[in-house]
Amino acid sequence: MAYETILVETHGKVGLIRLNRPQALNALNRQIITELNAALDAFEADTGIGCIILTGSEKAFAAGADIKEMQDFTYPQTYLDDFIASWERLSRTRKPVIAAVAGFALGGGCELAMMCDFILAADTAKFGQPEIKLGVMPGAGGTQRLTRFVGKSKAMEMCLTGRFMDAAEAERAGLVSRVIPAADLVDEALKVAAVIADMSRPVAMMTKESVNRSYETTLTEGIRFERRVFHSMFALADQKEGMSAFVEKRKPNFGG
Ligand code: CAA
């Protein structure tokens, strides 16, 4: 598929998707979401890919849903089309996905980053849910995921005032896993993704599923789920390979 609003690259076992609507600071319109979803489908189906990176430009990861496209939407249209539901494709990706965020990650841009498994932030990153200034509220998970990341007080303040959070605050608050100098962001994300892509493919996917389960269930059920999945790993050749490699003092070679 030829894409117009994203750039797609493969680096060894890592798939890189770059949001690319520079004239609109990567504002998220129908086309960019359709293309993003198609690229995710392709990387999911590609057995050579073990980890995916989603990034934007130096100036913007994404400045939110496309306000110019959205401004004349009506209630029946948004309801009947289930507007935003298709964005959730990203959160259903089974392979690990890293968000590499530089510049603005606002509204739907912040929400898209939070659908990824973790966020690496450039020191230029700015996160915010400014929808309230447009007379609406976050509609792609902002009130839910931001609250789980940073707690009620900070999420409430950000959603009610629309103020932005810089990278240092985002790291302190637990929104991002690490802050990286902007010039090194994509290279560092590629290194981290390559480490993940070299692990056992099923184990990385099951680990992702298990961490995500902690957001969906009680501690008792989550621990039970984790233990059952852990047990199932002893059926994998990669478990034998990983533990033999440790005992034999060599690097494991996981086959997936
Ligand atoms: N939608 C459509 N176009 C956008 C956009 C958006 N979300 N964000 C920026 N643009 C466009 C601007 O209109 C401008 O286009 P023109 O040159 O044609 O006028 C271009 O991108 C550059 O933007 P600015 O001139 O505004 O750049 P700036 O550096 O002065 O400001 C900014 C940057 C602070 C990010 C500012 O653009 C801004 O506030 N953008 C909107 C952020 C926002 O409100 N996001 C939430 C959207 S609603 C949403 O996401 C709902 C949801 O939960 C799913």
TrEMBL record:
InterPro entries hit by this protein: ClpP/crotonase-like_dom_sf (IPR029045), Enoyl-CoA_hyd/isom_CS (IPR018376), Enoyl-CoA_hydra/iso (IPR001753), Enoyl-CoA_hydra_C (IPR014748)
Protein name listed in UniProt: enoyl-CoA hydratase
PANTHER family reported in the protein's UniProt record: ENOYL-COA HYDRATASE, MITOCHONDRIAL, ENOYL-COA HYDRATASE-RELATED
SUPFAM superfamilies (alphabetical): ClpP/crotonase
Family per similarity comment: Belongs to the enoyl-CoA hydratase/isomerase family.
Record's keyword terms, sorted: Fatty acid metabolism, Lipid metabolism, Lyase
Annotated function: Could possibly oxidize fatty acids using specific components.
GO molecular function terms attached to this record: enoyl-CoA hydratase activity
Uppermost EC category: lyase
Highest taxon, organism lineage: Bacteria
Keyword Acetylation: no
UniProt entry tagged with the keyword Ligase: no
Catalytic activities: a 4-saturated-(3S)-3-hydroxyacyl-CoA = a (3E)-enoyl-CoA + H2O; a (3S)-3-hydroxyacyl-CoA = a (2E)-enoyl-CoA + H2O
NCBIfam families named in the record: PRK05862.1
The protein's Enzyme Commission number: 4.2.1.17
Swiss-Prot/TrEMBL GO biological process terms: fatty acid beta-oxidation
